[in-house]
Amino acid sequence: MNVDLIDIGANLTHESFAADLAGVIAGAAAAGVTRQVVTGADVPSSRAAAALAARHPAALWSTAGVHPHHAASFDLLCRDTLTALLREPRVVAVGECGLDYFRDLSPRPAQRSAFTAQLEIAVGTGKPVFLHQRDAHADFVAILRDFSPRLSGGVAHCFTGNVSQLEEYLALGLHIGITGWVCDERRGLDLREAVPRIPGDRLMLETDAPYLLPRDLETAPKSRRNEPKYLVHVARTVAALRQESFESLAASTTRNAVELFRLADPPPKR
Predict the structure, then answer these.
(1) Given this model, what pLDDT does residue 194 score?
(2) Which distant-in-sequence residues (6+ apart) come within 8 Å of 58 by Cβ?
(3) pLDDT digit string (tens) for 109-142?
(4) Count of beta carbons in the 10 Å neighbourhood of residue 193
(5) Where are the domains of the chain?
(6) Measured in whole angstroms, how far is the alpha carbon of residue 153 from the centre of its chain?
């Protein structure tokens, strides 16, 4: 069976991949995860992600942004650097950006300011947004609502919310990114209820590797490191919850990612 899945959120610049990155990319392709979008979380990782995508033009693209954990460091130089990165064709989205009131690693006013600035960058560059939200739903939606008519789309990365939150995100025109969180029967109950309600043309899949290893993998790595190849497992879980075939889900989620991020076709299979 030929599979063509896209992992829209993989942190391949993370130090845990430094020793075997080529093998990780090859292993993903062998499993059917033919393309990946590498996440930028601050200026250094956004630069590294762009450089990595340039070295693997058949398989990788990247995002450029500042995660709310790093929002206190956002300044005019940061804005200019991100804007320049986003002019590169393989840098396909602004982010990871948003709000995180769970860890509060940056002051909340700084988070809101950095988020607003990156939405402005998205409007100016015409690139979609790759969004993070945790325990900040009301402020997140209020800020996004002001920008949504001018944005070129976006995705709620690693959505873990309930049906009500899902409906608000859909009303804002967002796509929904689902990770291995959906494979956790302990804390993923709200998400498992919401997944069948996501319209087929708004659903995307991601691993958030090396984080969020699916809890129910039959053979989990001892390191507990998540990898893009495990996206196949996430896809099978999502397909079962939606009562649709794996093949149908793979086709629609891949099409959605290609259209939102304007990705090229994968190389032909040998």
Answers:
(1) 98
(2) 266, 267
(3) 999 999 999 999 999 999 999 999 999 999 999 9
(4) 13
(5) 5-261
(6) 13
CB 8 within 8 A of CB 204: yes
**Tokens 């309600």 — which residue?**
197
User: What value, to the nearest 5°, has the Cα angle with vertex 62 and ends 201 and 1?
Assistant: 55
Answer whether residue 252 shows pLDDT above 90: yes
CA–CA gap between residue 172 and residue 12 (Å, rounded): 29
Look-up: residue for tokens 């790093």?
A: 70
Place of tokens 């969180």: 181
Residue type, 105: L
CATH homologous superfamily of 5-261:
Metal-dependent hydrolases (3.20.20.140)
CB–CB of 82/65 below 8 Å? Answer: yes
Distance, in Å, from the CA atom of 169 to the CA atom of 138, rounded to the nearest integer, reads 11
User: 234: alpha, beta or left, given left = phi > 0 and alpha = psi -120 to 50?
Assistant: alpha
What residue type is 33 in one-letter code?
V
Q: Which two tokens stand for residue 250?
A: 């793979």
Give, in degrees to the nearest 5, the angle at Cα 186 between 184 and 188. Answer: 55
Size of the chain, expressed as the number of residues it contains: 270
First to last CA, the chain: 14
Amino acid type, 260? L
For residue 268, what are its two tokens? 């032909």
